[in-house]
């Protein structure tokens, strides 16, 4: 058996060397602490600790654990737990165990390990893991904020802002031998940090964006190996990011601006003799804006002039006599917060598939994949030659870039050569959403070997895999994978290419749930809930975009309600109760606000977006104009509010707030009554005008009177199969429940028909017409380009959830969250002959691999240690089931539960199983 450990506020994996205790085969690994991959400088003094148990044996269940926490690895090695010894705790809890030791203070480094007892024996101690505490208090920060609060003659502060990067440097002397060195940096909008000429870390576009008036993130790095006794040099480059916004002097009523780039840095050095020193930012630092990065703007691109490079500017001995004295500037305003999420990183490098000569000195490069990131180039030429790269998702019929859908984003990078042999360059402070690149000014005949595509998103693990016997579904999954990671940018954004790239709440209401099967996105969404909370107004109002870079406070239900559904997802998928506890007061405040302001005669009367982006009656339209295709906004708002009240009841019960739960239930019942009086047409058996969304929401939210449910359900089926000829007709709201709603009511075949067809409108239609991501519109190849992104995720709805939970059959039980109890129940659908998926849960990897061949059904599954599963087999006869070639009766780890219709349910303990049904 093997144990993997974690330190947690949510779920990060820190892998350590595993070990074996031979007599049990138990191993522990993946120690996790408070949602960090790199646990440097967290600001949680009571982090949650988690571990995984891996064993080849079946039916391994933890019965007890013991945690040791020490102030040094030496003490921990001697089992001297001077900070906390939990003692032997009789419990099967292996995730989110809260640290309960000595109160931790700023800069404290903490080391820990764990051992467990199971029904199969006792493990050895895990390898050591660690975390460190950041700067918990404002007064822990030394020095001053520095910057340059002005532009220069080569800059341009208009609607299309051009502001050059700021370069800072400072030399200092370490007179003694260094034991430990840690740097804390707030670099706004973005920074690159160097010590003695070496870049610190492999992060890009750091730190993650926030509303800087509410909170600013700092990063922490162990830089001991980068410093030396004697003279040292610190260098930083500040880019603009979201701090100095992409559009200056433009729509100030809408677009929030923050000022010029600025930074605060502390470098703490501890010497071997026990003395300490802090080097911090102040006006002794030097700065210049006359460096090679001449402008950097997320919408418009980066321009780099290599003739302006300053060799060795970030090393000891560089002459900075012509640099300016750093200016002491106002701090950003927001509270200092340790960044508990991963920074972005170059996660993959891909090669182009072709390059074509369009006309004189103009080439079109095809990456073969719509992606988000940038291009790295290799070039030789004369000093002053300029290579211009312009980016787009699609091409015109002429072969030229199609850029109308990018609006006024210029999406252009320019590199000016220094003329010194082969030059390799990639930008530092921008990213693009693109498949195609127009290349002009290249001094030689370019080939695909001169370019690399650099795929950039948050440094999170891919934790899910999925495949079926259906090629269309597989392609849609691949497109979803690329689209989701394209839009992870320190926050979930809507698109990576045009002049928007905003964190719209409604795009992720259900999508985040599906994404959590593919990516370890728990820290990203935990951070996003903090962004939403910080954006909430004192009266309770929540915006449609958070952080509120755009001031869109529209007071609808369907977008701000994402605040609640994301918290629910984090609990259901990852067992994160603490996030609910933290945000419950703010969520309740919004619920009360909407109720007090918009609950009229039992209905919520405010909606803003409708069922956004239903397939319109004309392919040229963005939004449907036909009332028959639109769903009543009051219906959408009221039904969604009932759903949110139901979730809030669950939260209230979880937090032991019975009076709140009772109040939510009372309001929900009142709304249901008014809702049915207003919208239910009993003669037609439909709600309102009978759109699929109008009927689906009250169905899945259990609002329909029992005697009317069959008629409404038949109406949905008829609408899909007859009126829409088996195609989708829902927008963002309806698609959030479409696939699960169909399966839950016994028509997974209809869900499969929608999921696998390649005709308009469908996800398959996108793939059939060349999409390698997910479009913003069902008619994305024909619609008006004013709102026509080729890389969005909002129309995925609950599709990815359906893939994993209904096709693969991997689902967490509601009464034992985070996959402590797993429901293994794949849908048996005619035409779909195989499904295969894996998912790395908090407890370990879950696998499902099934195949149908005539009357034979073969299913291989893997259940993690310390969990159990209810397995649904497609037969009602135990005699027809074998496992590993043997009759299931008496096999260890398998227990018959019951038959349910045409299915046999068995309880399975941890281990690998191979079921056959004849």
Automatic annotation (TrEMBL):
Bacterial alpha-L-rhamnosidase N-terminal domain location: 176-348
Pfam families: Bac_rhamnosid, Bac_rhamnosid6H, Bac_rhamnosid_C, Bac_rhamnosid_N, Ig_Rha78A_N
GO molecular function: alpha-L-rhamnosidase activity
Entry EC number(s): 3.2.1.40
Catalytic activity: Hydrolysis of terminal non-reducing alpha-L-rhamnose residues in alpha-L-rhamnosides
Assigned keywords, A-Z: Glycosidase, Hydrolase, Signal
Chain ranges of the Alpha-L-rhamnosidase C-terminal domain: 810-885
Positions of the Alpha-L-rhamnosidase six-hairpin glycosidase domain: 463-807
GO biological process: carbohydrate metabolic process
Domain annotation Alpha-L-rhamnosidase concanavalin-like: ranges: 357-457
Enzyme class: hydrolase
Annotated signal sequence range: 1-17
Taxonomy, superkingdom: Bacteria
Family annotation (SUPFAM superfamilies): Six-hairpin glycosidases
The protein's name in its UniProt record: alpha-L-rhamnosidase
Originating organism: Arcicella rosea
